[in-house]
């Protein structure tokens, strides 16, 4: 395997090409996933916040799966929220439903003032199981 290669999900949404970035880069046994938002197939935001957060996780999980990994292999998670104080009670239950079992990854949550029309973004670094790393 090259020192790094790009991983695309099976059905990538339009934002990757529109903004010219890779969904994830696999390197040295780790997957560095770009921030994932609740983008519909055409790249537009899912308007309902809870559904937007779930779609962000769905988009994230599609990338992890394409690399032969899963959220259970996440080691570092960063959350970005436009209005954490107002939205936390909506975001947290969706996050918990997708979080899995112990051992949990570490997490950093950051309030930001712009996410290109989205209210939530999740960025992950995940380990790729050895079997998948050789594929």
Automatic annotation (TrEMBL):
Cellular component GO terms held in the UniProt record: cytosol
GO molecular function: deaminase activity
Protein name (Swiss-Prot/TrEMBL): RidA family protein
Natural source organism: Sphingobium limneticum
Lineage: Bacteria, Pseudomonadati, Pseudomonadota, Alphaproteobacteria, Sphingomonadales
């Amino acid at each position: 395997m090259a020192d790094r290669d790009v991983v695309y999900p099976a059905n990538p949404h339009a934002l990757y090409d529109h903004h010219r970035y890779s969904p994830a880069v696999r390197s040295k046994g780790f997957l560095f996933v770009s921030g994932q938002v609740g983008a519909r197939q055409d790249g537009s935001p899912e308007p309902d916040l809870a559904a937007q957060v779930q779609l962000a996780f769905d988009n994230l999980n599609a990338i992890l799966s394409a690399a032969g990994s899963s959220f259970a292999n996440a080691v570092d998670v960063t959350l970005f929220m436009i209005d954490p104080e107002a939205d936390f009670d909506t975001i947290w239950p969706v996050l918990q439903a997708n979080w899995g079992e112990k051992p949990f990854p570490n997490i950093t949550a950051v309030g930001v003032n712009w996410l290109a029309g989205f209210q939530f973004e999740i960025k992950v670094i995940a380990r790729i199981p050895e079997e998948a790393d050789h594929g």
